[in-house]
Amino acid sequence: MNNRLIVPIGVLIAAVLIIAGGYMIFNDSSKTSDDSGYEDDDDVVEYTAREAFMPEIKVKSDELTRNAPVPFKVGEKYKYRSTRQHTFTRYDPDDYEETEEVIMDRETGEPRMITRTRPKEDAKEINETRTDTAEIEFFVENMEKAEGRDCYAVSVKVREEISKEEKSEMRKYMSEEEMAGEIREREELMEQQKILFYYDKDTGKTTQVKMDMGGGEEMTFKDDFAEFIATAALGEMTGGSMFSGWMLSLNENFRWKQEIEIAEKFGSGEKHSGKITMEYRVVDMEKTDGRECFKVEIVGRMEEDEQESFPDESDKIEMTLWVDVDKRIMVKQQTKQGNFMTTETNLVEII
């Protein structure tokens, strides 16, 4: 995810799996055999061109009483501007070396040789802070049936701007002509890619999420996996925090907890599980950009079953959302994860 040439949709998909504690293994064929050792996962509906193995997701939360309707109208567009700051450590390219190691393959249980690229023992750390800016557009495309329910189909398009820092980094290994071509290709790919959220028109529940990666590849998630992608834990990466069903239940005394259980099963029979706990509470009523808003603080923690010590700050997500009292959509968002990244997203206009 530190490769700045990865297009946004790839980062989003990686985020889904990394935060889940999962990983993706792609096969050359479009379908695995029945004796692959994996059970069918009903939450992962389809893949085109390649097959991905996903963790199992279960979302648990108390029922909420809604006090507002789903806010969408077909044809509406919501435009946001997001600024994300990364603080990270890197090494000079000359400070890496290749080493060969023998590992146990998790699928076959057999040893195999791999080549790893690691920093040299005397490599010096270089601390950097980088700021990325993106425009995010939500478009209420139409009403569609999803999982047997009438839903608003809301598409999300992300257009990431190329920062000065990134261009400076690219110039170290590209000519101006090569860089212009790379940026143009990246912009073309971004135009092809989008995320489509299906929200139940009555409850606001996320019933389905489709990720169109371009090139004819599409991933479709439903039920709990769709809810997971739309939670605040991933919202600032997927756009899901622009609206979520819990926003229809906000009041000045709102308190709510959401637990997301994650389980992986590997071909060798090995299992891995963890949990994300998200706690939501309204802390104030504030005006933001002329809109009366609920100020909602959200704290999330990631825990693994094998964790031997208390989670550190990098396992913690802190987010503040300002939600329009009347419209029940996000007006502003600020996010902090550990000490390494902060994000601010603001509503620009509704068309």
In a nutshell, what does this entry contain?
This protein has helices at residues 8-19, 164-170, 176-192, 223-229, 232-238; strands at residues 44-47, 56-61, 77-90, 96-104, 111-119, 126-146, 149-160, 194-200, 206-214, 217-222, 255-265, 271-288, 291-304, 316-324, 330-337, 341-350. It is mainly β. A hairpin with a 2-residue loop joins strand 6 (126-146) and strand 7 (149-160).
Task: Explain this structure.
The chain is mostly beta strands and 351 residues long. The protein has one domain. It has five helices and 16 strands. The strands form two sheets. The protein has a 14-stranded antiparallel sheet. Strands 4-5 form a two-stranded antiparallel ribbon. Strand 14 and strand 15 form a beta hairpin. The chain starts with 7 loop residues before the first helix and ends with a strand. The N terminus is likely disordered.
